[in-house]
């Protein structure tokens, strides 16, 4: 698959920023990912991300690190942080920006160490792809946790994107799929990804999946737009 995100952040890092990443999904026709947003500092981050970074402790794995903004903040706070991404361009940029420990790998292929904190920000749980993959994904994350470790992740309940009826209910297509499953394509300049699956999880669905897989799930923060931060820990 074309390294769309990597090419975009590399251009920005090298001073060649001329356009943003376009996204096309099964939910809406077109949206954009502003590339400067991927280089934000702590003050520019949403409150949910700020809270997650403040809760991080010990040895940290930043999963889906992108341009390395979260890892850099934690590194500056003297935490032992490793940034992981499956994008060569993102890892190269993270290194250029000063991230000291990086891993180029899909998270499901990585099993080299265990950590006190796993970070999955910017809807990192979306990497599970579909609801049917969630069990294997959570079990793999749990295998990377130390005994008293934590998984910090944010996501959104995208129920608000569906039509609401007079009684306050929502019209969700009865197509056999969980409504948070989305199919995406990303494009940057002449490069375009193959379609890929991404999932947005409502908190109750996440909590039930955690309980079924030996994990405790705690709601830490609820945002203003159906978004939330959750902390997952191993059941005692």
From TrEMBL:
It comes from the Bacteria. GO terms for molecular function: methyltransferase activity. The keyword rRNA processing does not apply. CDD domains: AdoMet_MTases. It holds the Pfam family Methyltransf_23. Gene3D superfamilies: Vaccinia Virus protein VP39 (3.40.50.150). The keyword Repeat does not apply. Transmembrane segments: none annotated. GO terms for biological process: methylation. Keywords: Methyltransferase, Transferase. This is Methyltransferase domain-containing protein. It comes from Flagellimonas sediminis. The lineage of its organism: Bacteria, Pseudomonadati, Bacteroidota, Flavobacteriia, Flavobacteriales.
